[in-house]
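_Full entry_
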Amino acid sequence: MRASAIALCRRSFPLTRGGRGSRSFSSTDSGDGFSSPKAKIFDRDLKRRQRDRAAWLIRHGDSFVESVAENLLDRLQDCRRTFPTALCLGGSLKTLRHLIRGRGGIEKLIMMDTSHDMVKLCKDAERDLSSENIDTSFVVGDEEFLPMKESSLDLVISCLGLHWTNDLPGAMIQCRLALKPDGLFLAAILGGETLKELRIACTVAQMEREGGISPRLSPLAQVRDAGNLLTRAGFTLPGVDVDEYTVKYENALQLIEHIRAMGETNALLQRNNILKRETALATAAVYQSMFGAEDGTIPATFQVIYMTGWREHPSQQKAKRRGSATISFEDIQKQFSPES
């Protein structure tokens, strides 16, 4: 997929916070235990093989991935402190490594992925970054069973990787425990509005050609879940914000090639392994007819949820205890009302 064939648009949403009304992912343990979720959704072995394939298909200059990584790393520049020891966890490892460029004061960087081929790709690319004074090591490991000592890291950062874990709260709890007090957790995951055009086209084509539907795209977290996930994992000062990116492709085939190159293809355990040729062609035709632009291109929406959280530390600001307020909102409203 040529970078010139993709136009990138960005739409930002205001900052949101997790609250009591938010839904959370199910897990058998809401404490610090690392128990498995009640039901496994994703085939982790398949996802590893997909990332092995992506390591061979990945192409330099992916404007969407680079934009997400850049926005994630920009959050380090908002922090006054430095993060000497950092863990880069799955997802867009190679892109993150190229874009760090001294941000966050990182001195030691651990790059981890479930895919051996992806780790090897990053290790080979490290030769081009020899001028940067960062001690980089490489680990093949699983986000669901984080092989890191407790309180050993200053920063955990994950770009487009954690949404494939079966137990997302458990994985985030492990990240928190691996952080030192006042350590920072940064993550970007794909949200539920991602590839909504493709979902619609697949549904219409399957109903037309097969008389029913089967899951072709993996379920993803909703924005309202993200704040509750951070709170449930025990992070303090949680922050969530959302961007929507619209990427333009020449046709549906180019979109599928991009998804494969990112390692984002379907990894559901209960998936239909057979896609009929007529259904695939019908999906492409429906996509073009419903969403095609005048210039012949088709748009694809990627919703990215950014999550920020800190491991608890006495120096962090805390909310006052309930009932300790000395001024009522009624008095404030009277003071600033136009009539006064």
